[in-house]
Automatic annotation (TrEMBL):
Keyword 4Fe-4S: no
Record InterPro entries: HATPase_C_sf, HATPase_dom, His_kinase_dom, Sensor_HK_TwoCompSys, Sig_transdc_His_kin-like_C
Keyword terms of this UniProt record: Kinase, Transferase, Two-component regulatory system
Pfam families: HATPase_c
CDD domains found in the cross-reference section: HATPase_UhpB-NarQ-NarX-like
Organism annotation: Actinocatenispora thailandica
Broad class of enzyme this protein falls into: transferase
Name of the protein this chain belongs to: histidine kinase
PROSITE patterns, A to Z: HIS_KIN
Stretches assigned to the Histidine kinase domain: 49-141
Length: 144
């Protein structure tokens, strides 16, 4: 099931799919920025970036009490980078990760997806200072 192209990407570019996701967020607290020249990506890479954005937004809604969430999709010469930054309550990254609330795969799922496409996921957070999630994936033509 995870290898199927999500409906959000069917006939749409990754920036367009992210715009729709942002538009569906409640209120006026989520923004998308696209930097660099968008280019087609292998489906596994686009799916990984999309699903990571969705999971990070869901976490910001469910756990962070964030007032603002900023997504930045950056097309670099050799990679594509996604940053999801919120101004929420943050968390202690040293605490063991528990199960999810049942709405997604959580941070463990984001890490597993990143590994599947040769990407790297980093999370910068601390209690009281929000969370920044970064996924960087190489722009390669043939991804596993």
């Amino acid at each position: 099931m995870r290898d199927l192209t999500p409906a959000e990407l069917a006939g749409a570019s990754l920036p367009d799919a992210l715009r729709r996701i942002v538009a569906d967020q409640p209120g006026d607290r989520t923004r998308l920025h696209v930097e660099g020249a968008p280019a087609p990506l292998p489906t596994p890479v686009a799916v990984t970036l999309l699903r990571t954005a969705q999971e990070a937004l869901a976490n910001a809604r469910a756990h962070a009490a964030a007032g603002r969430v900023e997504l930045t999709l950056t097309y670099l010469p050799d990679a594509v980078s996604l940053d999801v930054v919120d101004d929420g309550v943050g968390f202690d990254p040293a605490r063991p990760l528990g199960g999810t609330s049942g709405t997604g795969l959580g941070i463990g799922g984001m890490r597993a997806r990143a590994d599947e496409v040769g990407g790297s996921l980093s999370i910068d957070t601390a209690p009281g200072r929000g969370t920044a999630v970064n996924l960087t994936v190489p722009r390669q033509e043939d991804v596993r």
